[in-house]
Amino acid sequence: MDQEMRRKEKAMSKEETLEVLEQAEYGVLATISGDDTPYAVPMNFVYVGDVIYFHCALEGHRLENIKGNNSVCLNVVDSVVLMPEKFNTQYRSVTAFGTISIVENEEEKRKGIKAIADKLSPEFPKEGMEYINSAFHNMHVLRMDVTKMTGKATRG
Hints:
This protein has 4 helices and 7 strands, in the order αββββαββααβ. The protein has helices at residues 14-23, 61-68, 106-120, 125-135, and strands at residues 27-32, 38-43, 46-48, 51-56, 71-83, 88-102, 140-154. The chain has a 7-stranded antiparallel sheet. Strand 5 (71-83) and strand 6 (88-102) form a beta hairpin. The radius of gyration is 17 Å and the shape is globular. The two termini are 30 Å apart. The mean pLDDT is 90.
């Protein structure tokens, strides 16, 4: 996807774009079904380098889509403030494009799920590791290799 951002004055810096990814609790991951129907689902994630990790069940519609077409898009929104008097909304958003795969390497899988737990439950490291160890073989970790990412903000 090579389309440029239309409202360039709303573009965020790379630093602010990464800040949104680091702080956001979830994003909406869009995949493509075998019949070319889009499918989008909210998911927890963590950004590590140029990779985004997710976790999910061992089966489901999203996994079937990924197996058929690994092109995905992730949209994340934070800092939402409705401004009804201005008929507008203040927000920051990130849209990331890339390819996604199921992590097969056990070491990378553990790294990805631990990074998610560290992000979402930093005050419970011991309990997080216990949960990871008990559920490790009952989940997939997905790896999204980011090929393009844009950040956009509408401010007061």
